[in-house]
Amino acid sequence: MLNVSDLHVSVNGKEILKGLTLEVKAGEVHAIMGPNGSGKSTLVGVLAGRPGYEVTAGTVQFKGQDLLSLETEERAREGVFLAFQYPVEIPGVSNMEFLRAAVEAVRGHRQQAPLSAPEFMKLARQTCTELDLDPSFLKRGVNEGFSGGEKKRNEILQMSLLEPALALLDETDSGLDIDALQVVAQGVNRLRSPERAVVMVTHYQRLLNHVVPDQVHVLAEGRIVRSGGRELALELEEKGYGWLTGETA
Amino acid sequence: MRPSAQLQQRFTQAVETRLAALNAPPTPSVAQLRAHGEARFRALELPGRGNEFWKYSPASALMDPDLLVAAGSIGAPVQIPRLPGVTPTRLLIVEGRLVNVENVQPGVTVTPNEGPVEERDGDPRPFVALNAALSEGHVLIHIAAGSRLSAPIELVLAQGESRVARSAMPRVRVVVGAGAEVTLIERQVGTHRVWTNAVLELAIEPEANVAHHRVGLETGQGLWLTALDVDVQELAHYRLLQALAGSALRRNEVDVRLHGSGSDFEMASATFTQGGDHLDNQVAVQHLASDCRSHQTHRSIAANESRTVLNGRIYIARDAQRTDAQLSTKNLLLHKSAEVDAKPELEIYADNVKCAHGATVGSIDPEALFYLRSRGFSMRRARSVLSFAFLAGVVDAFGIQPLGDEVRATLEQAFSHVETDPEPS
Predict the structure, then answer these.
(1) Which of 101-160 (A) contact B at CB < 8 A?
(2) Element (H or E) spanning B130, and its range?
(3) What is this structure's pTM?
(4) From A194's CA, which of A91, A105, B165, B260 has a CA 20 to 30 Å away?
């Protein structure tokens, strides 16, 4: 599904990723952990096509294509989805319009028949209910005046409707209370299937109690310094990152 | 002789030629209007270089003698949109002549070419005087005191189909009787090279309530100069909602005078300019009595090499205590070569007032652009959606749903055709 090989990425001339290699197979859930500033957000940002990054070396293959040669929107249509750490507020565009346009763009590309307005509204309302979101949410401006938790759940709502092949979650769990965390976890678990993959960037292992990853990677100073199973996350929680990065915890 | 003086002289000669060739006035009222206008036009100086009021717009574009040549047949009216589900009292004014009136509601009287034609004393604007001097007729709309009109009044200022350069001098006065409630729609329709030099006067009697929707979204060769003079008496409420595109030149002179205590003016303006278009909003609000409120919201988008101007003057007289005056202008530049001039001007002589203004100019938020693209929106679509979103608050304030829908569709269509910079600015 996703093959990142020796990826070097700079921002404003400063190298952030320094030779990162990662393979994610269809059906797998990977967690990326690591201290602040280690390059976690840069990794998912560069995969989703966030502007401002310079790839200086390395390759990224997604479903056999050169991902880095695709425009941001082409990646989205091919099935890459990034749940933002800080979702953007867009007053003046209703959440419903926004979701519908996004779903149309992606379905159109997959040559799926467009959904009629009532079909889409029904689907959106139903998904809201599953995510414990009030359907009045759909009428508001995109993320406008949403609480932190509502914004994160709105990301999961989009993910659920867009049904991506590769979901990238950038600290979707941070700042969430336990109820919201469970909603996010349910959304991710529901997406899990043999055809899809998930990469979750997280700071805490708390989310991993609810979404059990196949692999956990520790990112430090722009490289993956350790990979393991679920137990690696527990170990990190106990010991901090110091023992892996050479710093005192 | 300086070039601007030469231009003024040629223009003045063309005005004299046109005056000499005018048809006989249809009524004594029109004759009187012409006589007053002619005298004032001769007494006033044409805008030249250094004229502050015309600093941001080329008055020279209007002072083209070709525009004053009598055009002969102007052809049938251009195509004019109709609102679905709305049956307004509709006045069709084609190049200054009232050609059709439909569905006159009880409480409304429409009188062509009869007085009273009142002039504001000492109006310094030569083109307002020219409108009177070259008048082919004027219209008085009277709304009886206490009327609650069930349908809007739609005033269509349209061009004819002829492609010959020319000018038109429409003049409409609307008197809204005490306590009456009216929704007014004003349309500026046509893309040909016609100078429409319009004067629109609104007299709003005590406790009356007027919602004025102004729509002019066609771009093209049209030269639109509109003087909108509004007198608001005590406890009356005037709301101006406008959606305007640029044109070869579109300039709105809005002069609102709050004469009566407790009167209120609200303005919400959404504008979009593209190509080499020019749009100039000159808004002057005069607080002349105590306890009045004026709140203005301006949102403008300028693309390509276009230029948008807002001059917002707020005058608060010495007796206008407890005035609440606000002006907010936010501007979005889609390209580096576009220009916005936003200039608030405050003149305050009362000591107990609340007066605030704010102006911002920015470009599309790159993070919002990335957010939409990461959801599958093309660059063009994302920019179009974000552009419309910038104006949406104003369009949502339109009180007539089908008109709001029409404006929205027109703007979305326009934004979807704006070229994207190779490198987003």
Answers:
(1) 101-102, 105-106, 109, 158
(2) helix B126-133
(3) 0.89
(4) A105
